[in-house]
Amino acid sequence: MIALASSLAMTAVILVATVLVRRRIVVVTVSGTSMTPTLQPGEKLLVRRCGSTALKIGDIVVLEPPRVPVSHEVKVLASLPKRTRWQVKRVAALPGDPIPPPAQEAAGTLRTVPDGTLIVLGDNNASNDSRLNGPYPADRILGIALRKLAGATFPGPDSPTS
Questions:
Q1: Phi, psi values for residue 105, rounded to 5°
Q2: What is the DSSP letter of 101?
Q3: Which residues lie closer than 8 Å to 138 by C-beta, 6 or more apart?
Q4: Is this prediction's pTM over 0.90?
Q5: How far is 78 from 147, CA to CA, in rounded Å?
Q6: How far is 110 from 135, CA to CA, in rounded Å?
Q7: Phi/psi at 117 (5° precision)
Q8: Measured in whole angstroms, how far is the alpha carbon of residue 39 from the centre of its chain?
Q9: What would the pLDDT profile of 105-161 be if each residue is shown by its tens digit?
Q10: Element (H, E) at 147
């Protein structure tokens, strides 16, 4: 009887630990070239969920892109099932920092990064990032990439289809 109780207790601990880890850690598949040569399409990243206060310049982050102005095309797309399209970028500047030269044109008259925003850049200069969109809202951060997952080739719901 004691062995059964001990086994059930251990199972409960493992289940609780699994739930807690899954809430904090996610796996994301890279699907574009904005972070080449550092990251390649199809690579998997282990990402720790966090808020903007945990970020440092140079961190690779996963975040939701800024919303685009409403147009007819956006209204049509809005009627389709919603699925978040995450971006993977490198933090280039945090609130209070000077706007880095690559993002100055898109930032307009801003000279420093406003509170509640950050500047993110892809490692590939052709990236859709703060060079085009200006500061990104900091509340759209999913988390920080901890590492690449070596040999992770399993397909997932966010895997590229090509």
A1: -65, -45
A2: G
A3: 51, 52, 55, 95, 116, 117, 118
A4: no
A5: 33
A6: 10
A7: -135, 170
A8: 13
A9: 999 999 999 999 999 999 999 999 999 999 999 999 999 999 999 864 434 334 333
A10: strand 141-148
